[in-house]
């Protein structure tokens, strides 16, 4: 009788331990994927890129490569991108070096006819380190060379005016953006590339963004994006004529 009781207790203990292990396994959260090695956030659009079919015959696909200005554009005015061969690949906060790393996956592999490259402001804001205009221009030039090597028309942008970054006050970026835009324009002229001037139609008397066209002094509102839409369409038509 005692042996039987011991056996029953032993079986019960084993059953309890197995059940406890199963409960623990059910409750344990799945390990979170580590993206520390993905500095350029390549994973953000990886699935969308895979699902995107190749351009249809005659399709003139255009990729918008940039940071928050482009990412928020699709969020605020999605209708601009609907029904058009436009692929938005903006990621908020990115600097020009990150755009360069993403260029193959988010531009070349999508086989567009043109790419709009909007780069430089986050570099100037020191969002990810401190970068010189030369470094920004080197990254832009590398993207242009990659585009041209793959028969993609690069469209360069004069950056939007910003009097002060709302997240980094006191950097006085207005004159820095003007200086960078002059270098971008000079390079575009040298290479005979289309320059998409987002600066001039949005600026106020301080060389910041007009109050009626911005949400925070750095990002356009719907009215600002409507102005950008018009000149963007004109630049695309010019580049692809």
Strand order of the largest sheet: 2-1-3-4-5
Largest sheet: 5 strands, parallel
Q: How many distinct helices?
A: 8
* Sequence stretches where pLDDT stays below 50 over 5 or more residues: 8-12
**In angstroms, what separates the terminal alpha carbons?**
96 Å
Keywords: Hydrolase, Signal
GO molecular function: phosphatidylcholine lysophospholipase activity
Domain SGNH hydrolase-type esterase: 73-227
InterPro entries: Ester_Hydrolysis_Enzymes, SGNH_hydro, SGNH_hydro_sf
What are the main properties of this structure?
5 strands; five-stranded parallel β-sheet; alpha/beta; 10% strand; 241 residues; Rossmann fold; 46% helix
Overview of this structure, please?
The N and C termini lie far apart (96 Å). The chain has helices at residues 2-27, 46-51, 68-76, 96-106, 121-124, 133-149, 173-191, 222-239; strands at residues 62-66, 86-90, 114-117, 153-158, 194-197. 46% of the residues lie in helices and 10% in strands. The chain has eight helices and five strands, in the order ααβαβαβααβαβα. The chain is globular and about 45 Å long. The protein is α/β, with parallel strands linked by helices and 241 residues long. Strand 4 (153-158), helix 7 (173-191) and strand 5 (194-197) form a beta-alpha-beta unit.
């Amino acid at each position: 009788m005692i042996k039987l009781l011991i056996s029953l207790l032993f079986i019960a203990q084993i059953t309890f331990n197995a059940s406890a292990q199963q409960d623990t396994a059910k409750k344990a959260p799945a390990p979170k994927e580590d993206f520390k090695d993905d500095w350029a956030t390549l994973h953000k659009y990886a699935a969308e890129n895979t699902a995107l079919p190749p351009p249809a015959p005659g399709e003139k696909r255009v990729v918008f490569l940039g940071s928050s200005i482009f990412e928020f554009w699709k969020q605020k005015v999605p209708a601009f991108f609907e029904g058009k061969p436009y692929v938005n690949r903006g990621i908020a906060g990115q600097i020009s070096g990150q755009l360069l790393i993403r260029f193959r996956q988010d531009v070349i592999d999508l086989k567009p006819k043109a790419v709009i490259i909007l780069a430089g402001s986050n570099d100037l804001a020191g969002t990810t380190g401190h970068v010189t205009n030369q470094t920004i221009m080197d990254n832009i030039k590398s993207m242009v060379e990659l585009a041209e090597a793959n028969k993609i028309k690069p469209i360069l942008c004069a950056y939007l005016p910003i009097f002060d970054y709302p997240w980094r006050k006191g950097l006085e970026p207005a004159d820095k953006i003007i200086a960078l835009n002059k270098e971008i324009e000079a390079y575009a002229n040298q290479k005979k590339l289309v320059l998409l001037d987002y600066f001039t139609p949005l600026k106020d008397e301080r060389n910041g963004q007009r109050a009626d066209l911005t949400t925070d002094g750095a990002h356009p509102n719907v009215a600002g994006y409507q102005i950008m839409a018009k000149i963007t369409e004109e630049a695309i038509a010019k580049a692809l004529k």
